[in-house]
Structures are given as structure tokens and as C-alpha cells.
């Protein structure tokens, strides 16, 4: 039976949910490179991170802070660290006004697995776009599909070339559903 994978996203349509802001360093300054948590590599910043609540509401087990940085409740972090220890980096964060423990979920694996032929549509940067450093890279991926045979043993990862997506194995998806993790939205890829 072929393995199945899912794009894990923040369910932004949940009524009454909180919204998280820009991550801050301990000194209160905005984190210099918030994108580092979305590239499929270990984070360079190892200090204490604090995240303000942009819009008060119900805390979620999985949500995005600014820059689509995945923030998870410690229960989710523990589950992922146990099930996919080679795929994730768990970075404790303080959430303003919330004593519960939360963490940034940083997927540290980048897997070249997008199937251009069966994805809905893929677009690439071209020389005429005026961004020579991006020429040949994905500009957009719609209806993304991946080639499971290229994933190997990864259970949580970012797809090479389109690291805005956070992909989890069916095993991880089912475990998150079993513990009732709020804020998750899955789409098979």
C-alpha cells in the first residue's frame, strides 16, 4: 500500500481563534530572520523567543505566527519529537498572556519530491521575470502532488522548491487527530 502524505495547514476559519504576531527575541526586538523556520533546515537562532497575541481568542494546538511560522502546544511538540525525531526541531516559546507551554515547530528536512506532471499547475521563475537568482525555481505550485517514493523515511518535511508547505505522513496526521489537536487542516498531496 503506497504511503500517503498531507499538507498540514493552519485552519484560519475557526471562529473565535487567536492570531499570533511577529516572534520577538528576549530583549523585545523582532526576530531578525523569521523565515529561518520555513526553509527545511535547523534554525540558526537558539535564544528565547516570545510571541505576542495579535488578536485574542481561543488558543490552538497548531497555528501560525507571523510569516506562517508553525506554533504548537507542548502536547503536539512532544508527539512530533517522539514520532519524527530526525525531522523536527522543537523551540520553546512564550506566548504573551498564556501560561501553557508552546513551541515553534521547525521541520528540518527538505525533500525534493514535487511531482510536476500530476500537480494542478506549476510555474517557474524565468529570466524575463528579472530575478536571476530565482530562475528555474518554483514561482507557484497549485494543487501540489508529491512522489511518495522520493520521500524516504521523512515523516515531517518541507518540499524542496516550495517550502511554504509543511508536509506530514499519514501516520503523523492520524496521531494528531487522535489527540484532538485543534487548528489543524490537512490536504492530501
Write structural notes for this entry.
The chain has 189 residues and is mostly beta strands. It has one domain. The chain contains 2 helices and 15 strands. It has helices spanning 74-83, 170-178, and strands spanning 5-10, 19-20, 24-25, 49-51, 53-55, 62-65, 69-73, 88-95, 98-107, 110-111, 121-124, 138-142, 156-159, 167-169, 184-188. Strands 3-4-8-9-7-6 form a 6-stranded mixed sheet, covered by helices on one side. It has a 5-stranded mixed sheet with strand order 10-13-14-1-15. β8 and β9 form a beta hairpin. The chain is globular and about 45 Å long. The mean pLDDT is 95.
Brief synopsis:
With 189 residues, this protein is mainly β.
What is the number of E strands?
15
State mean pLDDT (0 to 100 scale).
Answer: 95
Main beta sheet: 6 strands, mixed
> Alpha-carbon distance between the termini?
16 Å
General shape: globular
Radius of gyration: 17 Å
Strand order of the largest sheet: 3-4-8-9-7-6
Any low-confidence stretches, pLDDT <50, length ≥5?
Answer: none
Approximate strand percentage: 25-35%
The total domain count is 1
**Number of continuous helical runs:** 2
In helices, the fraction of residues equals 10-25%
Global structural class: mainly beta
Give, in order, the helices and strands.
Answer: EEEEEEEHEEEEEEEHE
Descriptive terms for the model:
single chain, 189 residues, mainly beta, six-stranded mixed sheet, five-stranded mixed sheet, globular
